[in-house]
Amino acid sequence: MKGARIMARLPSVKVLLFTLVLGALLGIIGVALVREATITPAATARALRPTLSPRPALTPVEEAYALALWPIHNEVKAGALRMIAGGLSYKLGQLDRAALKTRIETARDTYRKAAASIGTLEPPPSMVKHHGDYREAVRLYEQSAREMVRVSDDGRDEHLVRAHPLSMQAGVILLKVGNELWPTEYKPN
Prior knowledge:
Blueprint: H1 2-38, H2 41-48, H3 60-91, H4 97-120, H5 128-149, H6 151-154, H7 158-181
């Protein structure tokens, strides 16, 4: 008999729960409608506006510097990708030590050429810090490559471990400089 009474109550519990959920949803919709009706278009525009003022456009001299650095930047990024892919391929057993050395030395040559090309650029005063930072990033990539190529000599993976933070630091610097010089540049995840 008790079992029959409990079974008789279950539909009423389901109805009660449905009513509570429906009431909560209607309440949320009501609050949203009231809030939407009370917000003015000016307040909406202020909320959507970025809190930081937009960065001023580059001057013609700064633009010329950024354009001169752009092809170098593309080569440095390509070198970094070759180096990262080489290290990963080696660890996955897809490259032997000799092939890794070839790939890393190619990237290292890219960094040497980039350093020489950057040395020929004359940055405007407003870009001197970015210029120095970029040179530092290329130096760090080259140092990372020097460390990675040592794997081919002794086969010890600790060289890859030591090279990684150098490469990461260089990548962060490139992103920061790139955000200033080429803010619309595609940035990989």
